[in-house]
Write a structure and sequence with these properties.
It contains ten helices and eight strands. The strands form two sheets. Strands 5-4-3-8-7-6 form a six-stranded antiparallel sheet, sandwiched between helices. It folds into two domains: about 70 residues, Arc Repressor Mutant, subunit A (Orthogonal Bundle), CATH 1.10.10; about 170 residues, GAF domain (Beta-Lactamase), CATH 3.30.450.40. β1 and β2 form a beta hairpin. By secondary structure, it is of the alpha+beta class. Helix content is about 50%, strand content about 20%. Pfam families: HTH_IclR, IclR_C. Keywords: DNA-binding, Transcription, Transcription regulation. It comes from Goodfellowiella coeruleoviolacea.
Length: about 250
């Protein structure tokens, strides 16, 4: 039961502006529609979700906001990451992000746009992607222990939604390249022409728990510029890792 409720809330978080119908949420979670509706109704009674009475769309509810305010006092790392994200955006002109690992996904927590007028909108605050897809998820996956990677790629089919470029063998090639460089590169594999690069930020146990990302159009990520962007990402990721460890 708890797993089903968590899956519904995570799915609903992907629709912060438009809300989602019961059918959409059922499809996203693999639940039967009557089951999804029953759980959503129970959550609404407790304030964890809210429903637009005119259109019928579901939204995250006010009780989650109140709980989040309390939890943020212990778990919120964005106050430390915000300066890094702003420096990356200012130094490069690109859009910069901070994402957190949540289970087998990365969730974007912060976004800051640089002054270059053409931007990529693949990432936004609240966006979730499976590990191994966007550059943040790739760098986190690449730096996990090999048995964990093997288990993940054996269980998870990324091709169903993201295409043949996300076959296990292709993902493994990018993992090897990421380990060689120290940062991940996504050459427009989610949206054509929209590139991303990311470096991992580590927790006190040395596990990749977060990532700093730069995204932009392909012409801004040519061969001659990627090493410079990678070096900036690694520098900020290292500084942020140290700052988070000091305040843990």
């Amino acid at each position: 039961m708890a797993g089903r409720i968590a899956a519904l809330l995570r799915a609903l978080s992907r629709f912060p502006d438009t809300g989602a119908s019961t059918s959409q949420l059922a499809r996203s979670t693999g639940l039967a529609r009557p089951t999804a509706h029953r759980l959503l109704t129970a959550l609404a009674a407790e304030g964890y979700v809210d429903r637009d009475q005119r259109g019928g769309a579901w939204y995250l509810g006010p009780e989650l906001y109140l709980l989040g305010e309390v939890a943020a006092q212990r778990y919120d790392v964005t106050q430390h990451a915000r300066a890094s994200v702003r420096r990356l955006a200012a130094a490069t002109g690109e859009s910069a992000f901070f994402s957190a690992r949540r289970g087998e996904e990365t969730v974007c927590l912060l976004r800051e746009d640089g002054d270059f007028p053409i931007r990529s909108f693949v990432l936004h605050e609240g966006a979730r992607f499976p590990l191994g897809v966007v550059s943040a998820g790739l760098v986190v996956l690449a730096l996990l222990p090999d048995p964990e990677i093997d288990d993940y790629l054996r269980r998870v089919d990324l091709t169903a939604r993201y295409g043949p470029a996300h076959r296990p063998d292709a993902v493994r090639e990018r993992i090897a390249r990421t380990r060689e460089l120290g940062y991940a590169v996504n050459p427009g594999l989610v949206v054509e022409g929209s590139w991303g690069m990311a470096a991992a930020v580590f927790d006190r146990a040395g596990a990749p728990a977060w990532a700093l990302t730069l995204t932009g159009v392909e012409s801004r990520f040519r061969d001659h510029r990627r090493p410079e962007l990678g070096a900036l990402l690694l520098k900020e990721a290292h500084q942020l890792t140290r700052a988070l460890a000091a305040h843990a």
